[in-house]
Design goal:
The chain is 11% helix and 29% strand. The relative contact order is 0.14. The chain has a 7-stranded mixed β-sheet, covered by helices on one side. It has a two-stranded parallel sheet with strand order 2-4. It is mainly beta. The protein is globular and about 60 Å long. The longest helix is centred in the last third of the chain and has 9 residues.
């Protein structure tokens, strides 16, 4: 695929074997933790035995484990040729700080929604009827939404705002405001929709690299 750089291709990832020890049992590892750069690809990988604690086949954003990490996230990772042993890999993705990674599934073996489908962390603004899905089962397996190929997920960043300091530290609130949502509402219903905080996604502000939201 054009645009790929670093990649993992043709790997067998085993969470634990019969000779596991207490140190591993006390941890919650991931089989693969993705890059904090664009164009990282994972292909032809088989996952087994991630069936304890909060372990998962995939984690996100290497070395972004703390909110003070410099990366703003929202990186896109391409995947294909995955196999998960359903009996021993109940959790496919567990996102890490800053909880914004985007997976593009080229063949549907990650999401089960077919070629060119998507997975990303759950924010209320990501949930669209008939396009991106989320329920208790998906929360356990993917920790987020999965979307079919009738949509595309893209990174959007706001940075270097002025006046400096006015919005420092504040989350960026995002509300679904398409005509199909707003038009059927009367003024009272629209006002109630706008003030209801449960309708918003909130994306964390990052001091580095350039005071931004992604």
């Amino acid at each position: 695929m054009i645009g790929e750089y670093a990649q993992i291709n043709g790997a067998l990832i085993i969470g634990r074997s019969n000779n596991t020890d207490w140190i591993l049992e006390a941890m919650n590892p991931h089989g693969i933790i993705t890059s904090r750069q664009e164009n990282f690809a994972i292909k032809n990988v088989r996952f087994y035995n991630f069936d304890w604690g909060n372990t998962a086949a995939l984690g996100t954003c290497s070395h972004c484990f703390h909110d003070a990490a410099t990366d703003e996230g929202a990186r896109t990772i391409t995947t294909q040729g995955f196999y998960f042993d359903d009996a021993t890999v109940p959790r496919r993705i567990r996102y890490q700080t800053p909880f914004k990674a985007i997976f593009k599934d080229l063949d549907g073996t990650l999401t089960g929604l077919g070629a060119n489908s998507w997975a990303t962390f759950y924010y209320r603004s990501h949930l669209w009827d008939g396009e991106c899905y989320y329920n208790s089962t998906l929360a356990d397996v993917y920790e987020g939404v999965i979307c079919g190929n009738n949509v595309e997920l893209r990174t959007l960043k706001f940075s270097t705002y002025t006046p400096s300091g006015l919005f420092d530290g504040m989350g960026l609130k995002v509300l679904q405001y398409d005509d199909s949502i707003i038009s059927p509402m009367n003024e009272t219903e629209k006002e109630a929709y706008i003030v209801d905080r449960s309708n918003y996604g909130s994306f964390n502000w990052k001091y580095k690299p350039s005071k931004n939201w992604a």
